[in-house]
Amino acid sequence: MSHKEQFSREDIPDELRQQFAVVLRRLWRVETTMAVCLAAAGLFGSYLVLFFSDRLWDSPGWLRLGLLSAGVGVAVASVVWWLSRWVFHKRDTRALAKLVQRRYRRLGDRLLGIVELADEEKRPAIFSPALYEAAISQVAGEALKLDFRETVNPRPARQRALVAAALVAVAVIAWAVIPQAGWNTLQRWGLPAADISRHTLVRLAGFPGEMVVAKGEPFDVNGVVEYRSFWRPGTASARFNDSKPILADIAGTNVNFTVSGKVEGGALTVKVGDARHPVEIRPVQRPAMRELDASIEMPAYLQYPVQNETVQAAFLPVLRGSTVSFRGRVSRELNHAQLTIDEVAKTMNFRENFFSSTAHEVRGTAHFAFTWRDKHDLDGAAAWQLNVEAIDDIAPRPDLGTLGRDLAILETEVLELNATVRDDFGVKEAGVEWRALGQAEEVPLQIAAALTARANGTQETEFETGFHFSPAVLGIGKDTTIELAVWATDHLPDRKPSRTMPYRLHILGIEDHAEMVRQKLEEILENLEEVSRAEEDIAEDTRELSESDDDTLAKRKTNEKIEKTAEEQRENAQDLKDLAKEGANALMEAMRNPAFDEQTLRDWAQNMQKMSELADQQMKQAQSKLGEAQQGGDPQEKKEKLADALEEEEDALDELADLQDKVNKDLDNLQALTLSQRLRKVGKEEMALRIKIKDIIQETIGLTPDDLPERHTRANGRFTKSQGRTQAKAVELQGEISRFYERTGKGQYGEVSREMETEKTGESLAEIEQQISSNISMLAIRNLGDWSENFEAWAKKLEPPKKDDDGGGQGGGQGGEKKTNDLMKLLYSMLRLRESEIQHRQQTALLEQQKSEVDIYTKGVGRVLQMHADSMLELNRMQFETVEPAMLDPLQETFDSMEITDNLLDKPQTDLVTLEAQTGSIRAMSDVINLINEEIKRDSGQQGQSKAQQEMAFMMAMMAMKQQMGQGMKQSQSGGGSQSGGTTSQSASALSGAAVGREESERAISRGSGAAAKLPEEFREVLQDYFKAVEAMEGDGQQ
Predict the structure, then answer these.
(1) pLDDT at 562 over 70
(2) How far is CA 624 from the centre of its chain?
(3) Residue 486 neighbours by CB under 8 Å, 6+ apart
């Protein structure tokens, strides 16, 4: 020890030195306590902060690292602080003196002063030791009176010790209560970078990390709460993003949250006590059905391929007996798909977002419900409901379009039947069947091979075919009424054919057909009278208007009346034009009947032409003048126009009166012709019945009706009924002849009427009927022969005389006019002949199809051969009567061509060779018609010949119209005439041509005979000339 240190120590009294030692010891204890408590507080404090932080949330790593750093930092700082005080910078006596002085202010600086005086280094160079000692003694004495222990304040140490103790106590208590949490916190605190999960007092289990939910729909989130300590909270909360928390009570250990629908994704945080569980919510649309396809396998009998159909509604019709399976696609990958059929569920196969079902046989109506679940366990919004209804294979539906229900045709005609058959799955075949009516025994339905057509394949749901029905080919005689229908079948096994409604077809002889045409023309005359009366009323109205004063003409009501009169004139002209068309139709029917000669046809063609010209000229001009009068403003101008209109109307009335007179005269001639023909027919019927009875008389003579064999009894019944019908016809004819005589006063009709009355026609024929019924055959045979001769004699008396060839309403002419008349007569004959040849070609084709039925074929060929021979005779007659040199060679060529056909039919041969020969004959006839047109056109220099050319063009126009009309005449509902069905109304029933429902451009023009063909080339130029001439005549009238 240095001298100075010894001196200082010795200079300070021991009592004072002990006081300083007490201060030093106390200060060490306090500061050491402070350092230790501060370090403990830092460490335990940071630990407890983490402990309680983990109770609130899952403390992140950065927080744990920060807390550990803070705790360790505080502890390290405490140690450094203590070391700096007690190791590196240890306090000396002077520091202790300063500490005491701060506590005891009254000592001032004296205590520090004596301590410094005791330090030799700090003494002045010159000092008094005695003085120093005296000062030290004085201050030491005063200091010894003080308690230096009070200099060190233990309060900070105690405070820090309390804080540290409290923190340690809390930590100890926490460890004691929840040691797992304490240990987990210590681990997480000590190893902040380690992935150590937080230990919570409550554990959440069963909550998903992500939920895919249906967009906009409420959903449930549920899980299990596991309590790990004494703390058992009873309420849980869930919060979606920043929305208001949802509270839920904990039932036992289960908790469930019902969350409102969400349209955007987010996090749903579930909180129970210190546990947190985030659930990622991802709203998506529910999986939807994108498409559903049905695969339908039809029953085997249809031979259909598998039908694939997209299901677009809740109803799917399927043919009964089919099997159906489904394949669908949904909007998302699937993990389940199910099909419930009438409450029976079946799992379907699925892959990705497709599913498929097994096949189901359709026997009746079944309810199908499709359900599915996607990979997110989301079900579809609703089950796809589908009703599969078993439908039956409906019978085919044959149809004959607008064909009339009651028709009449000549036995030589060919009726074209355009049938359309519709079926839901496919037509198999169709045909025509018929049976004769009015027979003693019911006749079974008959079907001919030629009248049967088979569809192409099994899938033809709309089958169109044409049939040519020829009574002559099929052996159906005249005066027969048949019931006809089209039948059709489909592919359903054992199905009976379906049929159209029955059509009644009357097969007429030329006599009855001629009477029907006459009745139609008589009806036209009645309508012509109505047109005349209407024209008289129009002329009277026009006269009144033309005689009105200027003031009346200026009124609006007068204009309205003029307008009304003009409209009436237009309608009346149209009525007359329609009447001309009806007459043309009747005339076309007459052309098919050989009973009407060419002159009669020409007379009626002129009548129809006159009607058409009246409607297009005078009546139309009158309408035009009335229209001008209605438009005119000046009364005087109106009067002039009305006067012009009245003049045209009076001209029309004069023409109508002349036309009525001519039509009446022609009708009388026509009725005379038909009466004669009908009488002759009755005579033929009587002769035919006589022959039939004579054929069996050897087996029935002498027998009573009761003793007759069964077959002869039936025959006798038929003969009796036939005679009854003949008796009724004769009585009816007698009445008509009598009335005709009363109306016309023609002597021969009165003579025949008196003779029929004298002979007691009705009673005598009824007596023959009784004789036949009683099997008095010999007497009946003799009487039938006598009456056949009577009817023939009366027919000759009533037969009108042949008209002069130069007639036709133009008087006897010479030179060019006679040539024109001859050519017109030849034109009518050639048109009729060509129509017949077209029918023969159709019948030949029909026979070729009927070749397998030998009996029908043989008899049919014979009848067609006979009709063709008759046509050749008619052509021969034309050759003999024709004096025009230019026509002789073409007519001979036509005859040669027809002779080729005659030889082929005689073999018999009805194949393509014969058809080509007939086509050649038709072509040769068309050449003759063309040549006639050219001849008439060449000689058209004179006015009379020009009219003849217009007549020819009008006839061609009627022929063109005939191609668009159906054949056959519809039976009228009015009475009269000799037909049992009453009078007939000839009407253009649309038999031929395209079936109903086609486009207009697809309809083929049908010929009047029933053959479908285009307008002949020879008609076109003539028709153009005709219409040009009509326009020219209208122009002349306007001028």
Answers:
(1) yes
(2) 48
(3) 398, 399, 400, 417, 419, 421, 430, 431, 432, 433, 467, 499, 500
What band does 712 get if pLDDT is binned at 50, 70 and 90?
confident
Residue 596 lies in a domain: yes
Q: At which of 751, 768, 798 does a domain end?
A: 798
Dump pLDDT digits (tens) for 633-645: 677 888 888 888 8
| CA dist., res. 262 & res. 883, Å (int) | 107
For residues 739-760, give the mean pLDDT. Answer: 81
Is residue 70 classed exposed, middle or buried when 0-12, 13-18 and 19+ CB atoms within 10 A define those classes?
A: middle
Q: What is the CATH number of the domain that holds 274?
A: 2.60.40.10
Q: Are residues 338 and 431 in the same domain?
A: no
Q: Between vectors from CA 532 to CA 527 and to CA 537, what angle results, nearest 5°?
A: 125
List for the chain the helix, strand, coil content (%; round to 5). 55, 20, 25
Four-residue CA torsion sign, 119, 120, 122, 126: positive
* Integer CA distances (angstroms), 218 to 257, 269, 285, 993, in order: 10, 17, 13, 69
Domain of 980 in residue numbering reads as 399-491+974-1005
Is there a contact between 627 and 569 (Cβ–Cβ < 8 Å)? Answer: no
What is the pLDDT, as a whole number, of residue 605?
83
Is 1037 domain-assigned?
no
Q: Is residue 23 part of a domain?
A: yes
Rounded-to-integer distance, Cα 728 and Cα 737, Å: 14
Residues 597 and 713 in one domain: yes
**Do 280 and 295 fall into the same domain?**
no
Nearest Cα neighbor of 400 from 419, 423, 414 is 419
- Does residue 55 carry a pLDDT above 90? no
Burial of 509 (0-12, 13-18, 19+ CB in 10 A): buried
Q: Which residue has the higher pLDDT, 417 or 995?
A: 417
Q: In the chain, how many domains are there?
A: 6
| DSSP for 190-208, written as a single string | H-TTS--PPP-SEEEES--
Of 358, 375, 391, the position where a domain reaches its end is 391
Measured distance CA(864)–CA(412) in Å, rounded: 9
Among the listed residues 255, 183, 263, 266, the one whose alpha carbon sits nearest the alpha carbon of residue 221: 255
Percent of the chain's residues with pLDDT above 70: 80
d(CA 454, CA 457): 9
One domain, residues 382 and 426: no
Q: What is the pLDDT of residue 1027?
A: 46
C-alpha span between 276 and 278 (Å, rounded):
7
How, if at all, do strands 397-399 and 984-985 pair? unpaired
Locus of tokens 């308690």: 147
Closest CA to 255 of 280, 236, 279, 281: 236
**Is residue 149 domain-shared with residue 81, that is, in the same domain?**
yes
Q: What is the DSSP letter of 306?
A: P
- Tell me, yes or no, whether 280 and 294 share the same domain: no
At residue 298, φ and ψ (nearest 5 deg) are -70, 160
Using CA atoms, how far residue 478 sits from 186, 486, 549, 591, in Å, is 126, 22, 67, 18
Instruction: Choose between 895 and 186: higher pLDDT.
Output: 895
Q: Quick check: 122 pLDDT over 80?
A: no
Structure-token match 């969400």, residue found: 262
Q: Which residue has the tokens 């005791």?
A: 118
Give the burial class of 513: count Cβ atoms within 10 A of its Cβ; 0-12 exposed, 13-18 middle, 19 or more buried: buried
CA 952 to CA 938: how far, in whole Å?
13
Q: Which helix (H) or strand (E) holds 340?
A: strand 334-341
In a domain, 1025, yes or no: no
Tell whether 464 and 517 lie within a shared domain.
no
Looking at per-residue pLDDT, the higher value among 941 and 676 belongs to 676
Shared-domain flag, residues 117 and 224: no
Q: What is the mean pLDDT of residues 117-121?
A: 55
User: Secondary structure of 932-992 in the HEC alphabet?
Assistant: HHHHHHHCCCCHHHHHHHHHHHHHHHHHHHHHHCCCCEEECCCCCCCCCCCCEECCCCCCC
- Fill in the amino acid letter for 513: H
pLDDT at 550: 76
